[in-house]
Specification:
- The chain contains nine helices and 14 strands.
- The chain is an alpha+beta fold and 364 residues long.
- It has a single domain, classed as B-lactam Antibiotic, Isopenicillin N Synthase, Chain (Jelly Rolls, Sandwich).
- Strand 8 and strand 9 form a beta hairpin.
- Helix 3 crosses helix 5.
- It is globular, with a radius of gyration of 20 Å.
- The two termini are 27 Å apart.
- It comes from Rhamnella rubrinervis.
Length: 364
């Protein structure tokens, strides 16, 4: 099963639709009633005061010092967030706030370039690298209200600066510096996750391939939508990779995380990253940590931009539950599968909730 060379239908840029001044969105973007933001799961529990709930926010400064009590407190907060939410925000994470701001502005500048300049980077389903407007190759699928740019950082054999946007000026240098800093941060976080699982601190990193891991960036651009109650910027899904580091829009909320029977709209903290567990760490942890469904809502008054950095296993290493986490009471829940085999599912079919990782469970 291979990805085709081109999309099944002509690509329409959502930003162009938005800027055309249309009052009603095309049928191709109208979600079924059960998937719409206003009629799906309750956004909040009636017993909780509106706006009072958010994913955990963790100050990581104590993780890197010599104060063992403070370090253990941070590790405990991370562990609880991974088990209870699958999502958390981090501040004082070691990546410069100025670099975060520059990276956002570079990408915002790209999406506001003239269309003919952006079209030079148009992508295909073969690699997804470049400027895109849809996931999945199912003809006639209901589409998401978003455009994006996807590029590779690691392995170095896939890193091709010619596929990165040359404009705005200095964008390639900023994008490269941002990727290097986030990769370092992911390495530190992987140690914390390993320790919290009772494994050697390098276990997860080694299971991913050591230094030979995969890393890529998807920049999401969500234009204004005249009917935000009918559409989604990104359909409900769990991330197929290892771990995701999201730099959200600093002015517009949009990410929603599924918590039990409701959707929680994440309120970004200033210069925080939003971290979430991906399907590969769910498999490695034998479902002690779970990847969680999330989606993106859109806005009629404001556009929104976010940077999702994916930290993934080397693509050809079989991923399976850590033997230390398999017992007679908790047998291995998943069969081995490489990340290459795994991500083909979402590339062909688009985001579909938790259906991929759930379909991998070993028969009982």
């Amino acid at each position: 099963m291979n990805c085709p060379q081109d999309w099944p239908e002509p690509i329409v840029r959502v930003q162009s639709l938005s800027e055309s001044g249309l009052e009603a969105i095309p049928d191709r973007y109208i979600k079924p009633p059960t998937d719409r933001p206003t009629t799906s799961l309750k956004e909040s529990d009636p017993s909780i005061e509106d706006g009072a709930i958010n994913i955990p926010i963790i100050d990581l400064e104590g993780l890197y010092g010599d104060d063992h009590d403070r370090r253990n407190s941070v590790l405990r907060q991370i562990s609880e967030a991974c088990r209870d939410w699958g999502f958390f925000q981090v501040v004082k994470h070691g990546v410069s706030p100025e670099l975060m701001d520059r990276s956002r502005e570079v990408w915002r500048g790209f999406f506001h370039l003239p269309m003919e300049l952006k079209q030079a980077y148009a992508n295909s389903p073969k690699t997804y690298e470049g400027y895109g407007s849809r996931l999945g190759i199912v003809k006639g699928a209901i589409l998401d209200w978003s455009d994006y740019y996807y590029l590779h950082y690691l392995p170095l054999s896939l890193k091709d600066l010619n596929k990165w946007p040359a404009l705005p000026q200095n964008s390639r240098e900023v994008i490269d510096e941002y990727g290097k800093e986030v990769v370092k941060f992911c390495g530190r976080l992987m140690k914390a996750l390993s320790i919290n699982l009772g494994l050697e601190e390098d276990y997860l990193q080694n299971a991913f391939g050591g230094e030979n891991i995969g890393a890529c960036l998807r920049v999401n651009f969500y234009p204004k939508c005249p009917q935000p109650d009918l559409a989604l910027g990104l359909s409900s899904h769990s991330d197929p990779g290892g771990m995701t580091i999201l730099l959200p829009d600093d002015h517009v909320a949009g990410l929603q995380v599924r918590k039990g029977d409701r959707w929680i709209t994440v309120k970004p903290a200033p210069h925080a990253f939003i971290v979430n567990i991906g399907d590969q760490i769910q498999v490695l942890s034998n479902a002690i940590y779970k990847s969680v469904e999330h989606r993106v809502i859109v806005n009629s008054a404001k556009e929104r931009l976010s940077l999702a950095f994916f930290y993934n296993p080397k693509s050809d290493i079989p991923i399976e539950p850590a033997k230390e986490l398999v017992t007679s009471d908790r047998p291995a829940l998943y069969q081995p599968m490489t990340f290459d085999e795994y991500r083909l599912f979402i590339r062909l079919r688009g985001p579909r909730g938790k259906s991929q990782v759930e379909s991998l469970k070993s028969p009982r």
